[in-house]
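Field log, afternoon session.

UNIT: design team B
ACTIVITY: writing a sequence onto a fixed backbone
BACKBONE:
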């Protein structure tokens, strides 16, 4: 990857021998590996057995989970927050695991719509919840730094599964608790 970054830097007309760029290809490669580390993680390792018996059948919400991802179209960042809710049916997921699941999928090249659905489907599969709701709000650098250059636009996506899709009261409770 280091060699590829060197070629990219040269192709924009820069001189890799100038002091500020001497180690940039290596630093860029390390940064890109960090930004895409989700490809080297899997859901079983992330959850690590943190599924606990519980009698709770009330909605659990984790709000404002910051996320950093990169769009697959321009390989530019999108930055925002995820709100995740589920209704347990006998098991609850360790609190930090929800944020780790968000991170695992966010640290891959993709679109926000797919990220939202991946998080929701994973939490549903892991917990066996009766329903899962995920909302992501993010600002996309591909829209802010290039193209239409709109600085104040935010994209919101949602995935509503199970009772969050079939029961308007459940969906309404989730949305009202986010306000």
């Amino acid at each position: 990857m280091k060699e590829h970054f060197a070629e990219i830097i040269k192709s924009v007309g820069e001189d890799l021998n100038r002091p500020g760029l001497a180690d940039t290809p290596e630093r860029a490669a390390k940064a890109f590996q960090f930004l895409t580390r989700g490809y080297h993680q899997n859901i079983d390792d992330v959850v690590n057995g943190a599924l606990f018996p519980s009698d709770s059948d009330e909605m659990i919400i984790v709000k404002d989970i910051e996320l950093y991802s990169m769009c697959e179209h321009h390989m530019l960042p999108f930055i925002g927050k995820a709100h995740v809710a589920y209704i347990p049916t006998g098991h609850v997921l360790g609190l930090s695991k929800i944020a780790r699941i968000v991170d695992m999928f966010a640290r891959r090249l993709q679109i926000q719509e797919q990220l939202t659905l991946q998080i929701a489907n994973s939490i549903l599969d892991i917990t066996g919840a009766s329903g899962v709701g995920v909302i992501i709000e993010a600002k996309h650098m591909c829209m802010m730094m290039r193209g239409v250059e709109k600085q104040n636009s935010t994209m919101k996506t949602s995935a509503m599964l199970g009772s969050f899709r079939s029961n308007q009261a459940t969906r309404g409770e989730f949305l009202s608790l986010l306000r």
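LOG NOTE: The longest strand covers residues 60-71.
NEXT ACTIVITY: expression trials, pending approval
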